[in-house]
């Protein structure tokens, strides 16, 4: 997610995606400890992450929110074979932000 109000909380982000229920919300912080206006949101499945994209360009408070899908159907197949995992509308598959970087250097 990009464009979050600087005072947005994890609860505000979860409410934004309602009726979907994010598994995890991570609001990014700058080195000075202030929010960057970006967040990673993880969902139970690729289909939920795709459904969450319907909220792209919707508003939270006075700001419109940009969403970026970082999950693919092929990842969903791989995860079903390997067990476990979750999908993100912005941060990739898994629990690490670095997993969303896949070759984008």
From TrEMBL:
**Entry keyword annotation includes RNA-binding:** yes
Q: Which UniProt keywords apply?
A: Repeat, Ribonucleoprotein, RNA-binding
Q: List residues of the RRM domain.
A: 1-74
Which InterPro entries does this UniProt record tie to the protein?
ESRP (IPR050666), Nucleotide-bd_a/b_plait_sf (IPR012677), RBD_domain_sf (IPR035979), RRM_dom (IPR000504)
Annotated spans, Disordered: 80-105
Q: Write down a Pfam family by its short name.
A: RRM_1
Give the SMART domains listed for this entry: RRM
One GO term of the cellular component aspect? ribonucleoprotein complex
Q: Looking at the keywords, is Repeat present?
A: yes
Where does this protein have compositionally biased stretches of type Gly residues? 81-97
Q: Which domain of life is it from?
A: Eukaryota
Name it.
Answer: Heteroproteinous nuclear ribonucleoprotein H3
- What is the organism field in this record? Ameca splendens
Q: Which gene encodes it?
A: HNRNPH3
């Amino acid at each position: 997610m990009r464009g979050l109000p600087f005072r947005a909380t994890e609860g505000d982000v979860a409410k934004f995606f309602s009726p979907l229920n994010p598994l995890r919300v991570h609001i990014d912080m700058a080195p000075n400890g202030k929010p960057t206006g970006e967040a990673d949101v993880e969902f139970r499945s690729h289909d939920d992450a795709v459904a969450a994209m319907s909220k792209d360009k919707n508003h939270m408070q006075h700001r419109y929110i940009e969403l970026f899908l970082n999950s693919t159907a092929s990842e969903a197949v791989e995860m079903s074979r390997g067990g476990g995992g979750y999908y993100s509308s912005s941060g990739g598959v898994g629990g690490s932000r670095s997993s969303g970087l896949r070759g984008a250097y």
